[in-house]
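tool=predict chain=A
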Amino acid sequence: MEDYLLLIDGSAVLCTQYYGTEPLSSPSGEPTNGVYGFMKVLSKILKDFKPTYMAVCWDVSRNTFRKKEFEGYKANREETPDPLKRQFILCQELLKRCEIPQFFSKDFEADDFAGTISKKFENEIPIKTNFDFDKRCEQYALGFHRDTDTPTMTKFRQESMKEFFKNKLVN
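tool=predict ok
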């Protein structure tokens, strides 16, 4: 079987699960519905798709380099609700404890990381993703592709994933 790198748009999954899952909270009252849904999706991905390698990319700021260059960029977006903001932090901490690589920066978006990673590894390993790229992203993510033939993915192994990313990506 062939190895694959799976890149997940963590922001898209968390937001979808936040709005699509009934309100849940921890015993202390902390909202957890988005994180609960995210972890269900992640569990299903690991069970059904069995990625060899995996990383999660995040949007953590609206003040990226695009916003600095074009003030109207995503100007119609509403403010992220506070309960969802808090779940981003919780979800990222859970993934850190699971030793799943994550990429985020206040200056870049999740698709910037996905495109960069895809370009960097395009000749080393096939890439699978849940990202929906627009033309802006396609301009620099040459070779990045969506692949739905997931049954060919091999078993996810934490150690091999850590080894794959070790010393390959520049901070």
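The radius of gyration is 16 Å. Helices lie at 10-20, 33-49, 65-69, 82-97, 110-121, 135-138, 158-165.
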